């Protein structure tokens, strides 16, 4: 019996991908909003935190100074505590979008700080369940914060709130997973006023960086984000390529004009630490 169980487990391990993105599945309670609301949410503490500890590398990849930021973790804890008291259903959609993006990114940074030093966020293996541990690792399934009486994980925020409500592929350039392969951690806090600017800037920066898309000969290599979340970008290679063409500049734009299929994808899970 034990041998058969081990054989089945081995089959699962070899048959399933090392990491698979959850589907977008709306959690209905978070769909409520007030279109007439003029209320705003203060994200200045998170904005200041980003400006102190986020920096841009010469290679075009934003990094975070986790070692120095640990000394001010209380500031981040205070900001997140304030967010737990926000009655989010009373706000308009623009304020809600900024709220959820900032919450996701601040929670990710705090999670890394709580276990730092680590080589990768995937080493913070706190998600519940055996399969979560075996197939992905990482903290994404763990309940990390209570908002409006509900315990939320990073997966809840991304896949049950952000993706199904806004249905905007540019969200993948906004939420940050603390990895070098991820789109850059935004340089400032999202607000209702700057969200469109930051989403567009994030998309253009990532697409035109080699970790987003690169062409060698006739082979297009893309970030695994475009594989994991292909449905968000249209559902097939042609739609992903059309998205890339929308933001590509210079030689990449010229190369993409003749590309019709994606040859491969890649992703670097190493921590986006300034020490790297």
UniProtKB/TrEMBL annotation:
Domain DUF547: 90-207
UniProt keywords, alphabetically: Signal
Coiled coil: none
N-terminal signal peptide: 1-20
Any Pfam family: DUF547
UniProt protein name: DUF547 domain-containing protein
Protein's organism: Oceanibaculum pacificum
Lineage, broadest ranks: Bacteria, Pseudomonadati, Pseudomonadota, Alphaproteobacteria, Rhodospirillales
């Amino acid at each position: 019996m034990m041998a058969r169980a081990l054989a089945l487990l081995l089959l699962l391990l070899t048959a399933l991908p090392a990491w698979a993105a959850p589907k977008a599945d709306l959690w209905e309670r978070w769909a409520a909003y007030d279109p007439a609301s003029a209320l705003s949410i203060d994200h200045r503490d998170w904005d200041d935190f980003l400006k102190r500890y986020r920096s841009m590398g010469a290679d075009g990849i934003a990094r975070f100074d986790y070692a120095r930021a640990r000394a001010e973790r209380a500031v981040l804890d205070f900001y997140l505590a304030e967010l737990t008291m926000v009655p989010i259903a009373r706000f308009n959609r623009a304020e809600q979008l900024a709220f959820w993006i900032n919450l996701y990114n601040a929670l990710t940074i705090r999670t890394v700080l709580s276990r730092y030093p680590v080589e990768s966020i995937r080493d913070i293996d706190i998600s519940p369940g055996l399969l979560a541990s075996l197939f992905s690792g990482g903290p994404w399934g763990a309940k990390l914060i209570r908002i409006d009486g509900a315990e939320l994980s990073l997966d809840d925020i991304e896949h049950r709130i952000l993706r199904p409500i806004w249905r905007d592929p540019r969200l993948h350039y906004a939420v940050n997973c603390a990895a070098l392969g991820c789109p850059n951690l935004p340089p400032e806090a999202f607000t209702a006023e700057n969200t469109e600017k930051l989403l567009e800037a994030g998309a253009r920066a990532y697409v035109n960086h080699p970790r987003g898309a690169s062409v060698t000969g006739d082979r297009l290599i893309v970030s695994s984000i475009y594989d994991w979340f292909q449905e968000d970008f249209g559902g097939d290679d042609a739609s992903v390529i059309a998205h890339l063409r929308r933001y590509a500049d210079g030689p990449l734009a010229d190369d993409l004009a003749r590309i019709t299929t994606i040859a491969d994808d890649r992703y670097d899970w190493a921590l986006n630490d300034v020490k790297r």
